[in-house]
């Protein structure tokens, strides 16, 4: 099971620059990234607020209890 299932993920449908597939935005120790489900293309995001299109869902990490 991939990790995105456990938490709310920001989806960007059909936004992959390589294959046009569905992508999601997630965060790891290196920071935010956008990854394509179809081809695995991964794009690092310097800061979440530099994203060029409106996000399609609300990230809810702040309400999570770790
Ligand atoms: Zn792709």
Structure description:
The protein has a domain of about 45 residues. The protein has no helices and four strands. The relative contact order is 0.26. With about 70 residues, it is mainly beta. The mean pLDDT is about 75. The site of zinc ion (ZN) has 8 residues, from loops.
Give the helix/strand class: mainly beta
Q: Helix count?
A: 0
Tell me the Rg in angstroms.
12 Å
Q: What portion of residues is helical?
A: under 10%
* Ligands (ions, cofactors included): zinc ion
Q: What is the beta-strand fraction?
A: 25-35%
Largest sheet: 4 strands, antiparallel
Mean pLDDT: 77
Distance between the termini: 19 Å
Structure summary, number of beta strands: 4
Order of helices and strands: EEEE
State the low-pLDDT regions, or none: none
Overall 3D shape: globular
Strand order of the largest sheet: 1-2-3-4
Oligomer: single chain
What's this model, at a glance?
The protein has 66 residues and is mainly β. It is built from no helices and 4 strands.
């Amino acid at each position: 099971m991939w990790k995105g299932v456990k938490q709310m993920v920001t989806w960007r449908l059909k936004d992959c620059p390589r294959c046009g597939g569905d992508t999601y935005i997630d965060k790891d120790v290196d920071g935010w990234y956008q990854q394509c489900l179809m081809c695995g293309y991964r794009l690092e995001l310097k800061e979440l607020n530099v994203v060029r299109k409106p996000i399609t869902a609300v990230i809810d990490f702040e309400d999570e209890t770790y």
